[in-house]
Design brief:
about 55 residues, five-stranded antiparallel β-sheet, globular, 5 strands
């Protein structure tokens, strides 16, 4: 499985908008906050691997 890295661009209610940081892309990925670690804040760094998001910074 591929490992991807994201930063939380902004939080909108029950959803977070993630920007990929390991490749160039202007698109944001919309993810339900229930799928993300509870501690995330805007600017948090995440690793996505094996269908799970992990807070890394």
């Amino acid at each position: 499985m591929e490992t991807m890295y994201y930063i939380v661009d902004h939080i909108d209610g029950d959803y977070a908008h993630l920007r990929r940081t390991d490749e160039e892309s202007e698109d944001l990925k919309l993810v339900a906050r229930a799928l993300l670690p509870a501690e995330i804040r805007e600017g948090s760094q995440l690793k996505y691997e094996m269908l799970q998001y992990e807070l890394i910074g």
